[in-house]
Amino acid sequence: MRLISLGVALAAASSRAVFASAADLPTPPLPPWYPLEAWEITSLSTSHPHDSPYGANESSLLLTISNPSYIPAVGAPHASGGGYVAFNPSTAHCELHFKTDSETPYGHSSTRCVSDRPNDFSGAQWDLILNELHTDLNAPGDYYLSLAFSLSYNATVYGTNGYKRMAAGTSFRARNNLEGKCVDGGLCEYKLKSNSTPTLIQPKLQECKSACG
C-alpha cells in the first residue's frame, strides 16, 4: 500500500506523453489525477488456426499488458499524512483460445487475465475481449485483430471502499505493428513488431468510487 500526495499526482499527470482529448474525459468533476497514464502492451503473439489441446482449428492469442501508474484508491487520514492511498501498478498475462464461427461471435470471445501480483491488496482484475479478427490467405497483409481491455481495482482501506474500473481498446494489423505470415495449410502466425513494443493504449475511467473528484 502506497501513499501519494496530491502534488505528486498532479505532477505525474502533467508529464505524460499520451493524453485523452476533452471529448474522452468523464463527466466533471474530474479527478485531479486524470487523465490516466497509458497502458503498455509489451508482448503479443497470435496463431490462427491450429491444432491445440483446446481443439482442432482453434485460434490462440497471448499477450502481456501493464498499467505502470499508481491510481488513487481512497483519501488517507490527516494522521497518516493526508493525500491518497494508491492502488499499485499491475501487469497481467492474457491467454485466449477461440473459434470464429457462428457459435462464437465477435465480442463474445473473452478471458480473465492472470495478474503478476495475485495477492496484492489492490485486487487488480484484467479482462480481454476479442472484438474482431480478419485473415485473408490471399492477402496476408490484411491480417487484423481488434481488442478491448478492462482493468478494475477494488479494496477497502481505512474503512472506505475504493473502486476504479478503466477500459481501453486497440487494433493490430500485419505490416503495421505485427510481423509474421500465413503458410500453406492455412496457418497464420504473427507477433508484435519490435519497433511497436511497447504499444501504448489510452484508458478511460468507466466507474469510480472514492477519490473520484
The SSE string, one letter per element, is EHEEEEEEEEEEEEEE
Helix content: under 10%
Low-confidence stretches: 6-28
Cα-to-Cα separation, first versus last residue: 21 Å
Structural classification? mainly beta
* Mean residue pLDDT: 80
Structure explained in plain terms:
The chain has 213 residues and is mainly beta. The protein contains one helix and 15 strands. The strands form three sheets. Strands 2, 3, 6, 8, 12, 13 and 14 form a seven-stranded antiparallel β-sheet that branches. Strands 7-9-10-11-15 form a five-stranded antiparallel β-sheet, with no helix packed on it.
Give the key terms.
five-stranded antiparallel β-sheet; seven-stranded antiparallel β-sheet; 1 helix; 213 residues
Give the gist of this structure.
By secondary structure, this protein is mainly beta.
Itemize the secondary structure elements and their pairings.
Elements (H helix, E strand, L loop, with lengths): L1 E3 L1 H9 L24 E14 L2 E13 L3 E5 L8 E4 L2 E9 L10 E4 L1 E2 L9 E10 L9 E14 L2 E14 L4 E5 L5 E5 L6 E3 L2 E6 L4
